[in-house]
Amino acid sequence: MEDWGGVEDEEQEQYDDDDERENEEEHDDLDVHPTSDDIDCFALDESEEEATLKLKPIDEQLEIQHEIQDFKNAVPMLGDDYKLIDRLGTGTFSSVYKAIDLRYHEWDNSPWLGHHPPASSAHYQSVPKPPGSRVFVAIKRIYVTSGPERIKNELLLMELCRGCRHVSQLITAFRHEDQVAIVMPYHRNEDFREYFMELPMPGIKEYFRCLLRALRDIHARHIIHRDVKPANFLFDPRTGQGSLCDFGLAQRFDSKAPAHGACLHTTMSKDDAHGKYRTKSEYNSDWVRSQQVAARKKSKTRAELHAPRGTFPFVFCLWLCSWNELSAKSHRSIFPHPLSSWPRRTEGRHSVPPSTGAVKELSTTGVLR
After folding, report:
1. Which of 252, 287, 322 is the last residue of a domain?
2. Among 210, 229, 252, where does a domain finish?
3. Which of 15, 70, 139, 146 is the most exposed place for a label (fewest CB within 10 A)?
4. Given pLDDT bands bounded at 50, 70 and 90, which one contains residue 50?
5. DSSP states of 160-219
6. Per-residue confidence at 329, pLDDT binned at 50, 70, 90?
7. Are strands 135-142 and 94-101 parallel, antiparallel or unpaired?
């Protein structure tokens, strides 16, 4: 595993100490929302959380149950440790499901719980669950449409983010054939659209306090999230706690910035069919600048007005055939042979294009006779 990007435990403790000073300065505002000193306020209603699927419409319930069964069949080892109970969200490259960790109390959870002191706003992340309680987790199913390098990158960055405040932590991950599942802690949250109009000023401060502390910690590890938006920041207005999630687009960055305009990705090669990300040592600043100068000179020259040889008849045919009667009349003065003179058959408001033979002749000669 790579290093932590220059962040040691002492520096993380310094960030937590900053929390204590900030909390003391804004004590009046923090009284509105529960703080991490009262751990009971973060406890979930286990019966309520387990029954969230029943609150959804019947057709959606059947759809989610079908997805859950398909997920269990695709990754059989999940059934031994987790009980899938609901779907939390879905996207282009993945879906996230809520599950119960059946063996939470049998494992050592300290690596992902972190060591945040009671004065830290992220202290709730480090508090273990009481014995005998049901522990909920979020399991992310990554679709096969996502490339292996992207999946590897997301897992690596989540591993490097362990110990960050208000950042979704990596518990474990599974791979079965072409299926990948990532297990993370479950964070109760509400849809941003449901509360942002009514969230009071102290709640807004809590929202940005958690978000900016999360960004501060991951930036200290030289990680850029690249997809910060309300859907990727899970905020609970009841407790004032938020968690930054979804590192599918995140990237590591070098402390020394490359030349302005440098390409961050190589072209395909024999060893890398999809190319690869360039490192800092692979940038050629002089070559990048010379290409920029050449591009500026080319942009000042006259644009090419002629289409490539052989493409004009076909493109022109598609363009003409897309015109309706109204456009033909409005542009009659432009064309020597009006489009309205073509044999056409009208049905309602829609027009039928020229005959197949006329189109074929146009596509070969560029002129409709």
Report:
1. 252
2. 252
3. 70
4. confident
5. HTTT-TTBPPP-EEEEETTEEEEEEE------HHHHTTT--HHHHHHHHHHHHHHHHHHH
6. very low
7. antiparallel
